[in-house]
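For the sake of transparency, this paper describes our internal protein records without simplification. Such a record has a labelled line for the sequence and another for the backbone structure tokens. Nothing more is needed to write down the fold, since each code stands for a local backbone conformation. For reference, a complete record is included directly beneath this paragraph.
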Amino acid sequence: MAYNRLAGMIPEVWSGLLLSRLHEALVFQGVANTDYQGEITAFGDTVKINEIGPITINDYSSTSTSALTIQSLSDAQKELKIDRAKTFAFWVDALDTAQIKPKVMSEAMSEAAFAAANEIDEYIATLHTDAGITVDGTSATGVDITSTNVLKYLSIAAQKLDEANVPEIGRYAICPPWFVHKMQLANIVLNTDNSNAVRRGFMGQDMYGFDIFKSNNVVNGTPAADDARILFGYNKSISMATQIVDTESGRPMVAGGGFKSLVKGLFVYGAKVVRPNTFAVLYADYTAEAT
């Protein structure tokens, strides 16, 4: 009798022991353009992105007898290639009871979804090498950043984007936690839009018009772990597309597999800096504050 009561309690006790992992904020996908998301179905797909070139303006007067100069539209076609494929797979043991199994499955699928999203986020962060604008520093030597000069480099980034005619709406800066801390020490980060505060990694909007995002996926140099590639752009600088190709579960006949169900998934994605002249990188070194 006591054994049966205890056995009946086990699922209830276990259900309280599912502890979610602590996840970093995923922000790179949030600033990318996903207009082409619905145009892919499989690995190897290519999305054609057309961009109209400049229109030429010519002189005209009421006494002019010459024919109009008629221009043929030119386009700069870019390709977004879906050239990356990733999988996940895990076992769910049959000993997980009917009460606990839905919770295990839900948590496991959430973890798989986050892992997939994080993989894409980390990939987009590596696209700093395609930035057409350098704010300051080099890949070999970053500029030293403290709370006394962080404002200066945000100002330079804004100036360089202004000079490149980058639209002011949709501008962003993606920074590592230490850089955001320098901004907070300088008291320049102001969250003036509470509706945006729910966006993951969003820290606020500063006086130079950048939405400030914090991410642990910002790429660091080697070997200096604090040599960060801080990115500035707007919401059309990068295009990306993802697709879940397949997910399935079942009990395959595998030797040694035991009484387990296999859950697996396949997803594909691609990302590209389609407007490098609107995309900037700051090579920044963490520097301790003066005491």
Observations:
- Confidence is low (pLDDT under 50) at residues 1-18, 190-199.
- The domain at 30-42+81-291 is CATH 3.30.2320.40 (hypothetical protein PF0899 fold).
- DSSP finds five helices and 13 strands in the chain.
- The chain has one domain: 30-42+81-291.
